[in-house]
Amino acid sequence: MQHRRLGKSAIVVSDICMGTMTFGSQTDEAAALRILDQCFERGIDFYDTAEGYPVPPDPKWVGRTEEIVGKWLKTKPRDAIILATKVSGPSHVWFRSPKRQGMTALDRRNIMVAVEDSLTKLGTDYIDLYQTHWPDHDLPYDETMEVLDELVRAGKVRITGCSNETSWGLMKSIQTAERLGTARYQTIQNNFSLNNRRFEDELAQVCRQEGVSLIPYSPIAGGVLSRKYQDGARPDGARFSRYLAMEGRQADMGKRFVNERSLAATARFAEVAAEAGMSPVTMAVAWSKQHDFVASTIVGVSKEDQLAEIFAAIDMVLPADVMQAINKVSREIRYPMG
Question: Omega before 90 cis (within 30°)?
């Protein structure tokens, strides 16, 4: 297992991170604990959760994921785990957060309430990486960066990061932190996969120049690159099977991930993987790790039997001819997710 530094911080993590957003909804506690144990045994030391998990957002189970992760954390040496969680930003993007009756924001009051709740549920006195979950571009960054700095100085948080940010937002946060003399974001957690390479357009350059690490989520494009949605398939219990049957933002997200172009690209990537003698899931995870601006790729599973293809990507480096074949598909089917 390779390890990389998060931004310019002192924290070094495994280059695969286990995401937990289905724990407590799609994945029950017993299965979640077994999955976490298997990841730890394979050398994964980085785990990502959020106060708003599990998905889909629902008041009946919100916060359950942190509770499950906290229960598991008690079975491991705390210093052996790098733990990341998130505070819910404003509910104006893909979904309405169930936290605080949907009245979430990145102001002082919301962040302070959120971090204390997360520390309690996780059963720990510090969080290694605390991230803002969706930005709030209408709120001056001063307040957000100042309160996050308070948490770092108090020892409740080691470093901070953002999620689903834009190039403008990331640069604005860095400039604000420099002006105020506060802790800065060391990481950004955004969508990045074979089917969604938009991060390379601008944000990758920001990360390189400013020393910020991407910890990409959905490297398998929400499961689409596993081919389980090919030919109109809608597997029982699968995330986008549910989302495509819903209305509003969930349906919109489903259509963004599962559409004619994304399925065409998936079929082409599967051919490249087969030619290279590996599964498309393994290739997708290995590809995600193989970027200079990426510190650790966040993977996620809902069932234990999905781990093998991910573990196969540990220490894998895709050869030049495979990378060239992948790039050829990306040039011919540009931006499959829009």
Answer: no
d(CA 50, CA 65) in angstroms, rounded, equals 8
Is there a catalytic annotation at residue 47? no
> Quick check: 56 and 25 in contact, CB under 8 A?
yes
CATH superfamily, with its number, for domain 3-233+281-321: NADP-dependent oxidoreductase domain (3.20.20.100)
Dig out the tokens for 296 from the structure: 């650790």
Tokens of 292: 């200079």
Q: What is the C-alpha to C-alpha distance for residues 95 and 102, in angstroms, rounded to an integer?
A: 10
Q: Write the pLDDT tens digit of every residue in 103-126.
A: 999 999 999 999 999 999 999 999
Q: pLDDT averaged over the chain? A: 96
Annotated catalytic residue within 53, 141, 185, 229: 53
Cβ atoms of residues 299 and 271 within 8 Å: no
Q: Is the pTM of this model over 0.70?
A: yes
Non-local (6+) Cβ contacts of 335 within 8 A are: 196, 197, 198
pLDDT at 242: 84
For position 77, what pLDDT does the model report? 98
Crossing angle (nearest 10°) for helices 320-332 and 260-276? 160
